[in-house]
Protein: SLC13 family permease
Amino acid sequence: MVLAFLPAQAAAVPPVTTGMLVVFGVVALALFLFVTELLPIDVTAILIMVLLTVLPWTEVSVQEGISGFSSTATVAVLAMLILSTGISQTGVVQILGRKMAAFAGDSRLRQLGATVGVAGPVSGFINNTPVVAILVPVISDLAHKGNTSPSKLLLPLSYASMLGGTLTLIGTSTNLLASDVAERLLGRGFSMFTFTGLGLIVLVAGTIYLMTIGHRLIPERVPAKEDYIEEYQLQNYVTEVVVREDAAIAGKTVAEAVDESRFDADIIQLVRDSETYFEGIASKRIRPRDILTVRTDRETLEALRELDGLDLVGTPPTDAELEADEDAQTLVEIVIQSGSSLLGETLTTSSFRQRYDASVLAFRSRGETVRQRLDDVELRVGDTLLVQAPADSIDRLSVNSDFIVAHESETPNYRTRKIPHAVAIILGVVGFVGLPWPMLASLTGVDALAALDFSIVQTALAGVVAMVVTGVVKPGEIYDGVDWSVIFLLAGVIPLGIALEQTGAATFLGSLVALTGNYLPVIGVLWVFYLFTGLVTNVISNNASVVLMIPVAIETAHEVGSNPFAFVLAVTFAASTAFMTPVGYQTNLFVYGPGGYKFSDYARVGGPLQLLLSVVTTIGIAAIWGI
Structure:
């Protein structure tokens, strides 16, 4: 440990070559596209592959350019996503969450403890992204029933899942990718429980922060009492009007009544003779004295009234009035999942209302509430739509992999009888990789056990087969459960790491970073690497940051005469804990809308946590592995 505090000695910086400049250009383009989202991340990944194989200066062959598809990390992540689908189909995580909710009651501290206590440990053994998708509705319901703002619990849910993801190799796709890159560059990857000890320290430190300081920094953006009209400030955007005898729209169908090219308005409900109609009203003809619920702004409403003979009816409708018959219709938030078929579409081009029998009243996108011109806005990952739909449509939406419905279905269709099978399969996937087979051979006297050596790819793929054979997952669900944008992202960024290494760009960057060793001790250089990786991860994909930073980290370690494996661990942990922006990690996006957060909330709560863990993790690495 004494050496860790001695100044490091850096070698000279190598000259810049044409190949380096070209690779730096590709990296800059990739970073720009990741940050601006001008292209979907999977399309950006394919573009990276194309550029690396077409430009001769990158020194990446076609075989190396597409090697990401055959990477053990890519295949392992694909298998783990399918296994996570199986777990979610059984409802075991939801059931566990509900039991913890019953324990929490209306105590905010116990609610927070239940949230972190479920999400953290579970995320160590199931990919943490699906864990958050599963728990968003559970935690939202827990908050409202306990008279707590969901804002107070949903951000800790995302953070806890990231903290839990550091417990094992399979907690995040980042860990699997980092292991694959380290194996290629150092000949040493991660075992199932390589960093479990440090992961526990990180989880405990993060939990203490969230339970003491963190929750006090989180604002109550969403009311504790569930009132979507108030929450989305729709008082001036949802109005009831009565159709007069002389109305121009009388005799027209609901679909024909409003000229959408002229007016930003939707008729979302019709009341006639005390009967409320919502489902399939597009073809229903409007009659005098019908009461219509219209989504539009006041200016457009005035124009419609003058043109079509409509009279206002009292005050704007409330949540209760829009849900007058809960069996017929309801209001609910839905979050656009990563990999959703709606990404890049608008409500018009996706035929949202006709396709899902649902009307969108408003939505949140990147912290902004959109109430006008809804049909013209392109949908992105994490966008949260306030939807009015029949109860059976909500149930269909809840099992659609395109969405996360921010309320649990009243009639969930879980395969609870398959819980023992699913749990046994996950334990087998983890156990066969983690068991010390040579030790078992010596204890049992069975020499053949010493020859056993299972990789996570082998056990995870075997687990997929087992889940299909036992009926935990149906064959068609295998493809629905995979977030293909993540798979393409992995496949695209892996050759970028190869290009950094083969052109000498990683060596050049490592030498530059190593210059800090002239002023800082080795542990200080390690800490700088953690901080820099964390900052990069907060603006681009965590997987991209791992591929970019690990080659540089290894070269830096060589330059300063330190342990390269320690630097790889620092990058891995930093990339798995992107707390300061909603775009740094998918789980942050999943809670962005339902929590009503602003962009700055993540920096306010996540900044101190990131700084705390940078110190805890750096010291932990130095103490456990040495630097």
DSSP finds 27 helices and ten strands in the chain. The first helix runs from residue 18 to 36.
